Amino acid sequence: MADLAQWFTGLPFSLAMRRIAWLFPLLQTVHILAIGMMLSSVIMVSLRLWGVSRTQTIAARGHRYLPWIWTSLVVLTVTGVALAVGNPRTLRDPALQVKLWMMVPAIAATLILAVAMRGEALWEKNARARGMAGLAATATLILWLGVTLAGRGRWMANLIG
Question: How far is 151 from 134, CA to CA, in rounded Å?
Fold first, then answer.
């Protein structure tokens, strides 16, 4: 990881990130807004799968919010990579490494949820399927919250210690 961080330090984009004062805060702001978009979309999907909200069918809710989830994931990835290249020291931060490892199951759970939300009849007629969908929604939300909190690891460590 140290070699990768050293290589990033010499990249023109990394140098530009350190020279242009407003670029890093702008990328951080966009990254944080994308986190909010991801979490709020996952919450809206989860509320429907848990049966709390019944204003739309499951398929309609998925059709409405899944594009926001995928868009936010792309924005999070692009801004996250740019932030890491701009500040290569973060690559050695254990909190970032935890965040990256948590993203793998979070993305997998989101994919499972997206595929599962395609069929409507299964959810409406089968209590076990509804329970599994609720479990998938819960796992997805917990994983994305974990990714978010892991990204704030240094701040949380300073708060606790």
Answer: 26
Domain locations in the chain as residue ranges: 2-160
CA dist., res. 56 & res. 45, Å (int): 10
Structure tokens, 19: 């020279």
Average pLDDT over residues 69-95: 87
Contact between residue 92 and residue 153 where contact means Cβ atoms under 8 Å apart: no
Q: Residue with structure tokens 């069918």? A: 57
Burial label, 2 (beta-carbon count in 10 A; 0-12, 13-18, 19+) = exposed
SS3 137: helix
Q: Which of 141, 132, 119 is nearest to 45 (CA)?
A: 141
In whole angstroms, what is the distance from residue 75 CA to residue 78 CA? 5
Task: Summarize pLDDT for 9-37 with one digit per residue, the tens.
Answer: 777 887 888 888 898 899 999 999 999 99
Please give the model's pTM, rounded to 2 decimal places.
Answer: 0.82
Which of 125, 118, 128 shows the shortest CA–CA distance to 60? 118
One-letter amino acid identity for 18? R
3-class state of residue 87 by DSSP: coil
